[in-house]
């Protein structure tokens, strides 16, 4: 889900220094794999996550405010920060490969402006997915000094990667790359697109989840409720979240949402309408629903996340995972 960006603060400052220091060390092979140590998730299934007895932190789009959007580097850093759940978006390439990508084109994050559906996976994978991450605006923005683009060139071998990472960790990954690298982590998945085209993506995703034995360890959603319903028909045992129409009818008209999609993922405010209100929290909890909140670019810091936990969020999809984890720790110790 698209966010406005905010400055990421201390963590990005540290990454600036690390990237500048390592840039003099030479490039690593693009074909090598990361040696980053995997951390253990607190629960390996959705039921386990929901049974923790505490709120949880998701790392939105690989922690897009403090690491390049949807990169293996970002997912690894989210794991290091201590998130409970990984979060990603799914698109489909020309040759039918499911990739971790929010937009339907490459303009926002890479050096090229190309449609995902026009590219093969191999073509897409060559692009620099850290190209527009800037330390001065948190994630992607243009028009900044070259020195602000601290990860630019790592993918193409012009700049050395941080210790423990490779050039591949700054490319657009496959869904299976993430699912297999962190098999003990629950993954929150949004199917991008709508209608018949997204149905094809849903079908491929259902097959890959089954092949990966991930049926009990993913949550799947889409803005398009027809896609949600299609996927549920394909994989009825997978936990799901409702789309925009179902959520709107529930929030504005109290139309019940089926319990197979009981994890409600909403922003605090949507198009000027307050959503995550005290009345909403009371209503959803009485009905047995679970509230995972995505701040949508507002309050993406420790204080903002803490306020959401205090308001009753069962989970926060944080674009700044270190701040999200810190807020959870603060909430749990009070």
Description:
This protein is α/β, with parallel strands linked by helices and 334 residues long. It is built from eleven helices and eleven strands. The chain has helices at residues 10-22, 46-50, 72-81, 121-125, 175-181, 195-211, 225-234, 244-253, 278-287, 302-311, 321-333, and strands spanning 56-59, 85-92, 98-100, 186-191, 218-221, 239-240, 263-266, 269-270, 273-274, 290-293, 315-318. Strands 1, 2, 3, 4, 5, 6, 7, 10 and 11 form a nine-stranded mixed β-sheet that branches. Strands 8-9 form a two-stranded antiparallel sheet. Helix 3 links the parallel strand 1 (56-59) and strand 2. It is globular. The two termini are 31 Å apart. Residues 1-37 have low confidence and may be disordered.
Helix residue percentage: 25-40%
The CATH superfamily is identified as Phosphatidylinositol (PI) phosphodiesterase
- The number of distinct helices, counting runs of at least 4 residues, comes to 11
Tell me, what is the CATH class? Alpha Beta
User: Average pLDDT value?
Assistant: 90
Radius of gyration: 19 Å
The CATH topology annotation reads as: TIM Barrel
The main β sheet shows up as:
9 strands, mixed
The domain count comes to 1
Low-confidence stretches: 1-37
By helix and strand content, what is the structural category?
alpha/beta
Distance between the termini: 31 Å
Beta strand count: 11
Query: What order do the helices and strands follow?
Result: HHEHEEHHEHEHEHEEEHEHEH
Sum up the overall morphology in one term.
globular
- Fraction in beta strands: 5-15%
CATH architecture name: Alpha-Beta Barrel
């Amino acid at each position: 889900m698209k966010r406005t960006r905010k400055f990421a603060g201390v963590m990005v400052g540290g990454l600036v220094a690390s990237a500048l220091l390592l840039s003099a060390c030479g490039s690593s092979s693009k074909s090598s794999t990361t040696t980053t140590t995997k951390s253990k998730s607190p629960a390996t299934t959705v039921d386990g996550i929901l049974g923790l007895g505490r709120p949880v932190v998701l790392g939105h789009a690989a922690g897009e405010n403090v690491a390049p959007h949807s990169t293996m580097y970002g997912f690894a850093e989210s794991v290091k920060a201590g998130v409970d759940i990984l979060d990603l978006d799914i698109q489909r390439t020309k040759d039918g490969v499911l990739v971790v990508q929010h937009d339907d084109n490459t303009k926002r994050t890479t050096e090229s402006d190309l449609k995902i559906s026009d590219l093969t996976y191999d073509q897409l994978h060559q692009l620099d997915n850290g190209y527009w991450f800037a330390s001065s605006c948190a994630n992607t923005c243009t028009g900044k000094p070259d020195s602000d683009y601290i990860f630019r060139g790592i993918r193409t071998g012009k700049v050395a990667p941080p210790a423990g990472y490779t050039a591949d960790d700054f490319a657009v990954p496959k869904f299976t790359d993430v699912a297999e690298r962190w098999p003990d982590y629950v993954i929150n998945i949004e199917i991008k697109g709508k209608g018949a085209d997204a149905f094809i993506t849903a079908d491929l995703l259902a097959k890959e989840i089954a092949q990966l034995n991930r049926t009990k360890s993913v949550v799947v959603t889409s803005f398009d409720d027809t896609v949600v319903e299609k996927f549920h028909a394909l994989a009825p045992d997978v936990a799901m979240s409702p789309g925009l129409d179902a959520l709107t009818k529930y929030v504005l008209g109290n139309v019940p949402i089926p319990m197979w999609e009981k994890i409600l993922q909403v922003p605090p405010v949507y198009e000027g309408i307050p959503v995550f209100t005290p009345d909403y929290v009371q209503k959803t909890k009485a009905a047995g629903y679970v509230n995972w909140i995505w701040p949508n670019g507002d309050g993406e810091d420790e204080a903002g996340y803490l306020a959401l936990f205090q308001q009753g969020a069962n989970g926060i999809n944080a674009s700044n995972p270190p701040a999200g984890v810190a807020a959870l720790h603060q909430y749990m110790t009070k």
